Automatic annotation (TrEMBL):
The keyword Metal-binding is assigned to this record: no
GO annotation, biological process: DNA integration; DNA recombination
Keyword terms: DNA recombination, Plasmid
InterPro entries: DNA_brk_join_enz, Integrase-like_cat_sf
Gene3D superfamilies referenced in this protein's UniProt entry, alphabetically: Intergrase catalytic core
Protein name (database record): Recombinase
Entry's Gene Ontology molecular function annotations: DNA binding
Record-annotated membrane-spanning stretches: none
Length: 63
């Protein structure tokens, strides 16, 4: 099983161009596989989780 997880992690990193820190912040809700074009919502590494139970994200906004 770990080999399959490592393979999926590497494939996700390779195909999306995200960094490992961004990949660590992925949740099942980050993936939209039901549309015409599947995609992944990637949060910037500038995001941090709140300490409260809801686990909200605080992200720096780039213009």
């Amino acid at each position: 099983m770990p080999d399959q997880r490592h393979h999926m992690l590497f494939a996700t990193l390779w195909n999306t161009g995200m960094r490992i820190g961004e990949a660590r912040m992925l949740t099942p809700e980050s993936f939209d596989l039901n549309g015409v074009r599947p995609f992944v919502r990637i949060l910037s590494e500038k995001c941090v989780r709140d300490a409260d139970a809801r686990q909200k994200m605080k992200c720096a906004r780039f213009r």
